[in-house]
Amino acid sequence: MKKSLLALAALTAFAGAASAQSSVTLFGVIDVNVRGVDNDNGGRTSVSTDGNSSSRLGFRGIEDLGGGLKAGFWIEGAFAADTGSALSTTTSCQPPVGTAPPVCTTTAAGGQTWQRRATVSLMGGFGEVRLGRDYTPTFWNHTVFDPFGTNGVGNQLNLMTQQGFANPNNMAAGTLVRANNTVGYFLPAMGGLYGQLMWTPSEGTVGNEYLGGRIGYAAGPFNIAFAYGETKHALGANTDSLEAYNVGASWNLGFMTLMGQYHNYSVGPRETENFMVGGTMPLGSGVLKASYGMTSLQSGLASLASGDAQQIAVGYVYDLSKRTAIYAHYSIIDNDAGLSYVAGSGGKTNGAGGFTSQGMELGVRHSF
C-alpha cells in the first residue's frame, strides 16, 4: 500500500513538473467604433472595427525542451468585431464622381482562419528560428513607430495603400504586411541590438517570393531600426521586383515620446516615398497622440497620376482599466490632383482625385 502511495505521489510530482515546463495562453482584442468619413461631396457613416487595435483571437505557447532549448507556437486570427465575422475585412471606397457619393465595398481577407499569424519556433541561445505565416521585416517599422499603430482613421498606412502605388489593382505582391510559407531567423538578446532575416519561396504564387531583413538598436529611451526587402515579380509573372526599404525611430523624452519614419517602395518606373513625424504624450489617465505625414508618388507612367498627399491626425485614448479603453481619433488628408487617398479606409483608390478626405471615430477597445 505504501509503495502504491509513493508511486502515485511520484507520478503526480512528475506530471506537475512536466506541466510547469509548458504553457498555453489564450488572448485577444475586441475593438469597435462609430466612424465617419467625408470626401468633400460625399460621406459614409458606419459601425467599424480596429480603430485603436486590431481585433483578434489567438493562442500561443512555449515548451521547455531542456538544455536551454524551447519550442513555441503562435496562431492568431483576425475578425470583424462589428459584425462578428470570423474573417478580417478590408473596406475600400471609390472617390466621388461629380455629385455622387463614394461607393464603398467590404471584402473578406482570403478565407484564412489564422491570417494574422501561424508559426512554430525553436528558441535558444542561438536566437529563434520561426516557420509559417508571419509579418515581413519591412512592415514592422510602419506599426512600431506610428503613434496610431497602423490602426484607425489616423494611421500612416492611409497614405500608402496596401500596395503603396498608384494602381493597387495591378499589384500582385503578397508580402507588404505578412507573407505565407516564411522561414525566419531572429537574433538572440545582445544588449540593445535586435534583428531578423526572412525568406519566402514563391511556391508557384506570383508575388510571394520574398527576401528581407531588419536590424535595430533599442537602449534606454531610444529605439531605431532599418529594414530592406525584395519581392520578385511584384506586378505579375516576369515583371520587375518590388524593392522596399525604410527606417524608423522613437525617443522617449519622459513627458512625451517622439516618433519618425521614412519609407521608399519602387518597382519598375513607379516609386512611392513616405515620411511621418509624430508623438504620444501621457495626459491624465490616457495618452494624447498626433502625427503629420506625406506621400510623394512618382508613377513614371503617363497613364498613372503623380503627386503628393498629406495627412494630419490627432487622437486621445482614455484608459478605463489596464485592459479597457475608450478613444477618439480625427484625421484629414489633402490630395493633389489625380490622387485619392481616403482617411480611414486604409488605402487609395483609382479614379478622379484631388479631394480632401476627413475621418473621425469614437470607439471602445477591450483586451484579454
Structure description:
The protein has one domain: Porin. It has 2 helices and 19 strands. The chain is globular. Helix content is 7%, strand content 53%. The model is unreliable at 1-20, 89-106, 162-170 and 346-350 (pLDDT under 50). It has helices at residues 2-20, 137-144; strands at residues 22-38, 43-49, 56-66, 69-78, 89-93, 104-108, 117-124, 127-135, 178-186, 193-200, 210-219, 222-231, 242-252, 257-267, 270-283, 286-298, 307-319, 324-335, 356-367. The chain has 368 residues and is mainly beta.
Describe the secondary-structure layout.
Elements: H1 2-20, E1 22-38, E2 43-49, E3 56-66, E4 69-78, E5 89-93, E6 104-108, E7 117-124, E8 127-135, H2 137-144, E9 178-186, E10 193-200, E11 210-219, E12 222-231, E13 242-252, E14 257-267, E15 270-283, E16 286-298, E17 307-319, E18 324-335, E19 356-367
Antiparallel strand pairs: 1-2, 1-3, 1-19, 3-4, 4-7, 5-6, 7-8, 8-9, 9-10, 10-11, 11-12, 12-13, 13-14, 14-15, 15-16, 16-17, 17-18, 18-19
